Amino acid sequence: MKLLIIGGTGNISRWFVPHLLDQGHNVTLYNRGQRTVAGLESVKTITGDRTDYATFERQMADAGTFDCVIDMVGFEPADAESAVRAFRGRVGQFIFCSTVDVFSKRPLAYPIRETDAFGASPTFPYAHKKVQMEQTFWRAYEAGDFPLTVLRPAATYSEGWSPLVTPFGGQSYHLDRLRKGLPIILHGDGSAIWVAAHSDDVGRAFVNAVGNTQTLGQSYNITGDELMTWHAMHRIVAEELGAPEPTFVTIPTSVLARLAPAESAWCVENFQFNNIVDNRAAKDVLDFRYTISYREGVRRCLAHLLANNAIEDCSAYPFYDNLLRRWQTVAKELVNNRDENQSA
């Protein structure tokens, strides 16, 4: 099949593109040409900026038709509108990489299923924009513009990235804090449920969606099977680092939002909530399998980061210790006020 990957060198696609090549597909990448991935140097690449919509659409017209297009780097509603213009009537299947964050963070019941209504809040721009993009693509599908498949991964990691999401931005400095035995902030009480999966497992779903007529007009949640608390994930990473038992400082998310609104935005909108998602459809139709345990994935990622001296120095993020000090001041005031009220 003649395939186009918009992106192709990121956290997920760099793992599944080799599998598509092994299957004999004729693969073309479209990206800015700013990242080289070992093993993909010889893959045909069209260089450009997909947000330069007029140029992108002209480049796609020049590239001809495709059996399948996989959009891995769509983040803005205008990206979807441009893609519809570019591929209307010119592609056998359009696969959009969305996110499980399109659903409400306060569902009526768990697990979250593909049939649940969209519920991403406008205050969570990443997720809300993905909703808007999906709505554009579903309208295009219903209008007959092209057959559509939507895949919705949850947290996905791989070698070169931290296996542990940092709730406050940055890439891997929290790993440095763990190995140095420094205090670790947990939002809330650290007991919210999270799921994560290695890109190799997630990529399998993308590969098996290509040309799969059973997926047309359908969406699939692509998530890990292990339900883990933030406490547990940090402890697993610390153990694999050979670091001391983590010293946790739990701070209510509402307080984090006041003390560090910019850094804690994803805690407020996402990480404080349980992420329990039904992935049975992906297993049944896409042969998705969760084969890499979180501990094994952590081990692989840490080995790569350490071998490449790629863990960030936590001292480059002074806001973290400043936040700890501010919380200690607030907590002390709360205790003092309580004591004063009790003695009054």
SSE topology sketch:
Blueprint: E1 2-6, H1 13-22, E2 26-31, E3 44-47, H2 53-63, E4 68-71, H3 77-87, E5 94-97, H4 125-142, E6 148-153, E7 155-157, H5 173-179, E8 184-187, E9 193-194, E10 196-198, H6 199-209, E11 218-222, E12 228-229, H7 230-241, E13 248-251, H8 253-259, H9 265-271, H10 280-286, H11 294-307, H12 319-343
Parallel strand pairs: 1-2, 1-4, 2-3, 4-5, 5-6, 6-11, 7-10, 8-13
Antiparallel strand pairs: 9-12
Helix pairs in contact: 1-6, 2-3, 3-4, 6-10, 7-11
Number of helices: 12
Per CATH, the architecture of the domain at 93-331 is 3-Layer(aba) Sandwich
Largest sheet: 7 strands, parallel
CATH top level label of the domain at 93-331: Alpha Beta
Which secondary-structure class do the elements indicate? alpha/beta
